[in-house]
Write a structure and sequence with these properties.
The chain has 153 residues and is α/β, with parallel strands linked by helices. The protein has a 5-stranded parallel β-sheet with strand order 3-2-1-4-5, with helices on both faces. Strands 6-7 form a two-stranded antiparallel ribbon.
Length: 153
C-alpha cells in the first residue's frame, strides 16, 4: 500500500503527530510519500518525496495531518485523483478528523481494508456576469472566497 501524507507544519503538534503516523505506517509496511518541500523535516524517516500532485496521483490513499482546514484543503486535492482521504487531528478539536493521535493503532484497518469510506457531497458554485462564466468554485464544509459572492446575489 502507498499513502500520501499531507502535513500542515503550521500546526504546533503536526510534526510530532506526523512522525508517529509515519512510524506506524512503516511498521505496517506502507510506502509513505510526502511533498518535497517538507523533506528537510522528514529526511530521515525513509519516505519518498515529490510534488504534492505526484504524491497523491501515485498513492492508494491520502492521510492529512492538521485541523479541519487542513483536511478540507487536502480533500480538494485528493478528489482530483479520486483518492480516499483520512484526516488525523493534530490540534485540540477536529470535527472532520477520522482519527485522533491516540488512535493511530487503528491505521492497520486502512491497510487490511477493514474500514469504510464515507462519501461526502461538495457544493459547486458558478459565478456568471450575464452569460459569461467568470469562475467556478467547489467547496466541502465551507467557502474560502466569500468576496466573489458579494454583489452577485
Amino acid at each position: 500500500m502507498r499513502v500520501a501524507l499531507l502535513v500542515n507544519m503550521t500546526r504546533p503538534n503536526a510534526y510530532n503527530v506526523a512522525c508517529d503516523v509515519i512510524g506506524e505506517l512503516k511498521r505496517l509496511k506502507v510506502k509513505v510519500y510526502i511533498q518535497r518541500e517538507l523533506s528537510e523535516f522528514f529526511s530521515d524517516c525513509g519516505c519518498e518525496f515529490g510534488n504534492s500532485e505526484d504524491c497523491i496521483r501515485n498513492c492508494d490513499a491520502v492521510i492529512s495531518v492538521g485541523g479541519d482546514g487542513t483536511i478540507i484543503h487536502s480533500a480538494q486535492s485528493a478528489v482530483e485523483f479520486d483518492k480516499p482521504i483520512l484526516g488525523i487531528n493534530a490540534g485540540r478539536l477536529g470535527f472532520l478528523a477520522g482519527l485522533e493521535k491516540s488512535e493511530l493503532g487503528l491505521l492497520c484497518k486502512l491497510v487490511t481494508e477493514d474500514s469504510r469510506v464515507d462519501k461526502r457531497m461538495r457544493l459547486s458554485v458558478k459565478h456568471y456576469e450575464g452569460e459569461e462564466l467568470i469562475n467556478e468554485y467547489t467547496c466541502l464544509n465551507d467557502c474560502d472566497d466569500i468576496q466573489v459572492i458579494q454583489g452577485s446575489l
